[in-house]
Amino acid sequence: MNIYVEVSGLMKVISLSPVAWESNSYLLVHGDKALLVDAGAPTERIAKALAHEGATLEAVLLTHGHFDHILSIDDLRAKYGVPVYVHRTDAPMLTDGRKNAYAYFFRRERVWRAADRLLSDGDTISFGDKTVRVLHTPGHTEGSICFCVDELLFSGDTVFADGYGRTDLEGGSYEALTRSLGTLFALPEHLTVYPGHGMTATLEQVKRNLGF
Question: Which CATH number is 67's domain given?
Answer without folding.
Answer: 3.60.15.10
